[in-house]
Amino acid sequence: MYIRKSTRVYKGKSYTNHLLVESILTPKGPRQRVICSLGNLEPAPREDWLALAHKLESSLRGQPSLEAFDGATAAFVEKARRGGRRRGSEATGHEDSILAIDTSRVETEEHREAGPVHAGHQMWQQLELDAILRCAGLSERACHLSEAMVLNRLIFPLSEHAMPDWMRRTAMADILGEDLQELNDTDLFRNMDKLYPNRERIEKALAEREKDLFNLDDTVYLYDLTSTYFEGQAKLNPQAKRGYSRDKRPDCKQVVVGLVLDRDGFAKAHEVFDGNRQDRGTVEEMLEALEKRTGKKPGTTVIVDRGMAYEENLQQIRARHYHYIVAGQQAERNPWLTTLKKKTAGRKSSGSHRPGILIRRNRGCGSSGNSRARKSTFCASVKGAKRRIEPSGQPMKRGCWEIWRGCGRESRRGG
Hints:
The chain is α/β, with parallel strands linked by helices. It folds into four domains: 2-95; 115-198; 216-327, Transposase Inhibitor Protein From Tn5, Chain A, domain 1; 334-414, no CATH class. The protein has 14 helices and eleven strands. The protein has helices at residues 47-60, 71-86, 115-126, 129-135, 140-155, 163-168, 172-176, 185-195, 199-214, 283-294, 311-319, 330-343, 382-389, 406-414, and strands spanning 2-10, 13-26, 29-39, 220-230, 253-262, 267-274, 301-303, 323-327, 351-354, 357-360, 400-403. It starts with a strand and ends with a helix.
């Protein structure tokens, strides 16, 4: 329902009236039906009309608000009900069955959170994940537990130990038709053991479904690594080893996790490596895993950080006919930084344009001479940097672009 403004001129004088209107479907197509006249709503702002229409529609459909209406709104509700009865409105046929409820005396028990879980369940069905997991050999209960764990990560992330209690506080059991009263963390850990050996089949099928559903672009992939550590000896995990700890816990064993995303942020592949594995030693294996999931697509651009920008890594990427964007090593950047410093020497204006970098400085004007506010905004254009740096005598390799993030830092020092 909505409110429509109507203007009529009678004996040279203009009269404004506002009508409550609903759209109905007839054999001749959609038509508009007037429920009642609300009179002149002006000078009330137009933004309030939609809210009023929603309140009137809810009341006509037997869903009165728990909050009491003000005098004007209550009058509009009564007028709409009378108008609806005259026109045979379906919503007011059960008006006599509406009961007034004292909300202060209402008590609830074993209530469940249903909204977010229901929305997540619809997303799960759109992705057809149940069919994907069944094709991977998982049972119906394993599919249900997997869905419950995924929705927990999306809605209210918890550990596997606390996850069963959260599931029992939601409508998960009702939606899935599964008894979760006796569920514990051991069941969830065992379910994860069933998922991991089938990750390649699951990720491949999911990538195809996401590409069709969201029309994803598969020309750019971003690859990076992280690590997670274990408290204790972790003797039963052969991949748990001591290595470079991103969590600042070199005393603990860890595993390294590699993840590939597309340009839209959708995960395409992941692998778990030994905890002492160097970043540069994972590129070849990760490229193979990516091709198994998405197929080989020459011309794809792979983006990695400088921990995987060694010549052997770039050769591995080129061998598969991929392009790449990397952050160069410091030793590779130094010759270019020297050239840039020579070309930009003497430029100290408040706004100066340097190869691929735009630097702006704002100096404070306070009473104290030491109160200076310096801001540097860097606008790095990869194509512009490539075009400006090449004439320096060291042409860049074809099929790839090198990004030197240290240029900005050295240029600021020089300026």
